[in-house]
Amino acid sequence: MIIEDLTILGRAAPDLMKSKMVKTFCVAGYSPSRGFIRVYPTSIDCPMKFWNVVRVPLERNLQDSRFESWKIQGSKSEWDNLDSKIEEIGTYPKKERRQLVFNLVDGCRNDINDAHRSLGIIKPTKIKGYFQEREKISESEQKTLLDFLDIPKPKNHWIKTKAEYQFIPYIKYTCSDCKSKQGYHNQQLLSIEAYEWMRKHPDNLDQLWENFRINDKDYDAYLFIGNQARRRNAFMVISILRFKKSNYSLSRTRPLIPWKKVEKPKS
C-alpha cells in the first residue's frame, strides 16, 4: 500500500531496536484517505517531521496487530536505504492545522479505547506537566559497545534513548468529556521535543512546560495520544499540538460526514 497524504503529527523519542542495534523512532500522523497511521520503525534521519506531508509505501507490521500500525516496505531487508522511499510532498498549511486537529478530537481517552482505536486526539480542559525520576537508568547497549571498540562512531551515535534519561515527563489531564473514574488521566509524554529539551537543558527541565504553552491562556493545547502494543488499555502522549488562539478562525461546526479516524477492515 502507498499512502499519498500522510501528515505527521507526532514523533516519539528514540528506542533501541536490538535486532539491528540501531536507534529508531515511532512516527504517527493522519491521512484523509486512511485515518490515523502509526509507522515503526523509522530511522533517526527519516524525513517524516512534524507537519510534513509525505508519500510512503507501507506494509503490515506482523509484530503489531493494532490496525493503525504499519512499517515502511523493506524495513527489514533495506534498512540502509529506507529513507529514500519516503517522498516529502510538502508541509500542511499552517493556517489550516488547528482546524484539522479540531475535527479529529475525541471527548475522552476512554472513547478512543472503547472504539478499539490505538490513536486519537484529546482537547483537555485541565492539564499539568511534571517529571518523575526513573528508577533505573539504562545505558544504551549500542553506546556501550561503541565505547569499548576502537572503531569509527556511526552518525548520530550520541542520541540517547528514552531509557537513558534520568527523568520521565508526564502529563496529567482531564478530558472535555472525561469518563475516567478518578476524573483525570496520567500519561507518560513521549514527544521527541520533550526529550531533546531534556538533553540540551538538563538544569532547566521545568521550562519545558512553558515551551509547550500548556497553561498559557492565549494558546489551545491538544494531546495526540496512542496506546502500547502490549498494553492496549495504557495510553501515552505522543505529542502536544498547540495553537495561538488569535491566529486562527476556527469553525465550530462539525462536518455532516465525520472525519475518518480509522480505515475500517474489510469483512
Model description:
This protein has helices at 97-103, 109-114, 141-148, 192-200, 207-211, and strands at residues 2-11, 15-17, 22-31, 35-42, 52-60, 69-72, 87-91, 105-106, 119-122, 124-133, 167-175, 185-188, 219-227, 235-244. It is mainly beta. It folds into 2 domains: 2-91, OB fold (Dihydrolipoamide Acetyltransferase, E2P) (Beta Barrel); 96-152 and 159-244. The two termini are 18 Å apart. Residues 144-149 have low confidence and may be disordered.
Short summary:
It is built from five helices and 14 strands. The chain is mainly beta and 267 residues long.
Quick tags:
267 residues, mainly beta, OB fold (Dihydrolipoamide Acetyltransferase, E2P), 5 helices, 36% strand, globular
Class computed from helices, strands and strand pairing: mainly beta
Helix proportion of residues, in percent? Answer: 10-25%
**Mean pLDDT rating:** 84
> What kind of assembly state do the chains in view correspond to?
single chain
Number of domains: 2
Shape: globular
- Poorly predicted ranges (pLDDT <50, ≥5 residues)? 144-149
**Spatial order of strands in the largest sheet:** 1-3-4-6-5
Total DSSP helices: 5
H and E string: EEEEEEEHEHEEHEEHHEE
| Alpha carbon gyration radius | 19 Å
Beta strand %: 35-45%
Major sheet size, sense and barrel closure? 5 strands, mixed, barrel
